Amino acid sequence: MGVEETGGPAAPLLPQPTPPQSAPPCYGVPVAAAAFQDPYFPDPPAYVLLPVYPRRRRQRCGCFSCCGSLISSSSTLLSAAFFLVLLSSAFFLWPSDPVVTVTRFHLEDIRVTPPPLAAIGISLRVDLRVRNPDFFSLDHRSIVVSIGYRGRPLGSVTANGGHIKARGVSHVHAKLKIDGIRVWNDAIYLIEDLARRSLPLDTVTEVDGRMRLFFVDVPVQGKISCLVSVNPETRELINQDCYPEVSYLTSVTK
């Protein structure tokens, strides 16, 4: 009994083996060794995850930065202190006008001629007190005393100058003599004043000087105005009202 052979290949009795598949890619990080039993990871590494913080720049207080801030603060304080010292020095050292005070009016003689001549003759002596309020000496060149009647100038006299030490006082005497000055425009007022026995006179005293401020000569001037009422018959002084005149800059700084 023979076996019949066929021309085709023999039919397989077992299923074809499947080709081995490659391991899938790993995108995670293992946290435990028991989670992976694959032979491709025999000894999985251990990782520790830390939060990421933004990196901050540490402000270093080095020598230059600390010293720079200290120098800047010290410079500001020194500038403010220097400015205050400068203002104080300007306040105390800035030259002021001399203070002039009339201590006494002495009417030696007065002659009033009624209209139609309408003339006035006066002999007047003025005692002055000049005070230097500054910290520098004062050289006053002249002292001018002028007199008037109802705003009309009658005459003036100039006294010699002198020297006043720093914050010192000087006494000056001036004598004014006027002979027969006619006042035609004020003849009516002159009649009224003679009837009331009160003759109003106005005087202005000016002191011109220079003050040596370091290397600069600064001009200063003191001025005082007075309103005086005299009795033409008895030559007595009835009333005296004086007020000093100071410059605006002097009144602000002192």
Automatic annotation (TrEMBL):
Subcellular location: Membrane
One Pfam short name: LEA_2
Main location: membrane
Region described as Disordered: spans on this chain: 1-21
Transmembrane annotation, as ranges: 63-94
Membrane topology annotation: Single-pass membrane protein
Boundaries of every Late embryogenesis abundant protein LEA-2 subgroup domain copy: 128-221
SUPFAM superfamilies the UniProt entry points to: LEA14-like
Name recorded for this polypeptide: (wild Malaysian banana) hypothetical protein
